[in-house]
């Protein structure tokens, strides 16, 4: 029992040490994107003596919110790691030992995020691309052992790679071939996850979270804050926008 407690304490110390390095990496990413976002205009514009719009219509609002929240979460994680002794363990190199399983996990997450940011976000319908991302992260890293992340990584790389290679130019982004492929991969990944995933609440909530979160976010951006959203001509959002302006909005405006 004493040996088991020592092993558990050592594993916890290594986890907190890795949390320390992960928090530093997230802080660096958040600060970088906040710096890039700061180049976007945030405020009232004046032209020909006419003031137009306000801060709430700026395209910088949502990126500031997302990466600001990421920065806060990273700082919280850093604080937890420091209070639990993870910083000391990390600096003493306890958390730096090579761990093949941990390296594969970090590499898989990196590939998923790279495929989403570079390939999907500018070209694919935001709801479909984000739903595929959320589904991949949940089914790849919740309750699975060994090579559980292989299928989600392949799905994201296939969707992102297809969109990037087939529609590299902005003039082609309005086409829907990559949207249909992303939708097919989302359905296939959801069915695979529901068939093979751990039987818990997260399994049942995965489709709800995957579709609900990006749907609420993009509708708030487009119809609440009147902002530009990624790929307005996407397969799903174009139908939502048409229904809103043609069928729903006239009901209360009249």
Put the structure in a nutshell:
The chain is mainly α. Helix content is 71%, strand content 2%. The protein contains nine helices and two strands.
* Gyration radius, rounded: 21 Å
Give the integer mean of the pLDDT values: 79
The topology string of helices and strands comes to HEEHHHHHHHH
Structural class: mainly alpha
Q: Please give the share of residues in helix.
A: over 70%
| Major β-sheet strand ordering | 1-2
Principal-axis shape = globular
Number of helices: 9
Strand content: under 5%
Uncertain regions: pLDDT < 50 for 5+ in a row?
A: 46-52
Strand segment tally: 2
Distance between the termini: 73 Å
Main sheet attributes: strand count, strand direction, barrel closure: 2 strands, antiparallel
